[in-house]
User: Fold this.
Amino acid sequence: MARLADIDFKAFVERQAVEQQRRAPTESAHAYAYPADRALRRAFERARAVELAVASAVRVFQQVERARLLGRAVQVGPRQFPRVAALTQRCAARLGIPVPTTYVVSSPTLNAATFGTRENSFILVHSALIDHLTDAELLSVLGHECGHIHNDHVVYLTALHMLTRAAGAVTRTVSLPATLGLRAWSRRAEVTCDRAGALCSGDLDASLRALTKLALGSQRLYAELNVEEFLAQTEQLQRSVGRYLELLELHPFLPKRVRALRAFGQSELFRRRAGLGEGGRSLEDVDDEVHGYIKVLG
Assistant:
């Protein structure tokens, strides 16, 4: 496993100018985003009930929840966990965003999250991720979180956190329509950000490993995982009435995410940006396939 202390970050940033040439002349920096994510965010901007719920939740978060969260976390920086700091800088440079403030919080759960506002967002990394993931896999996870910032997801993620976890029962009931809409959007936003993670790492296999590790959480089992059998669970799920439980989830079920990211790895966009050469599927073709995985109804 490469040591981040051995990576010349300045040289990496200088290489980004060269890597930008791999982008097609008319291609947006956000071209990788899953279209259903973008469409739902545009709908939220036109839906007053959703926007009011989001604004209210973010105000509460700014006043209360951020202080509570930061009171139990350790801020990452050049003199505090420099390996994680270097990975975060690398992801930010790849996506062209300011380097976000990153914190490590003590938790045995393999997870990371992004909260805040468009002007002041930050990433929380659970300590278990540092123990379980290689640098390449952690780069993908941090890239996923930076993808939320790059695609203006942060206020909606913060609102979801407040409405589903920190709000009282009355607030959750009143905000239920908005919450269901935000959950549907969140599942699609995860597809966008899994792609951002793969683009940041440039290593599809590492990104796929990071996703499957989230399903296990056991270092003794990682090497024994049969990925094809894991993906076959999706077919069993689609034949079950239980598939509708996904409507209440913030993330697509993990086998779906793995399938969706595999498809993106075949795209011409990913191959070009990862420096893998010409060829590959059109992103429109990939998105059509991914929609079949991600949709719950129909």
Q: What stands out?
A: Residues 31-294 form one domain. The chain has one domain: 31-294.
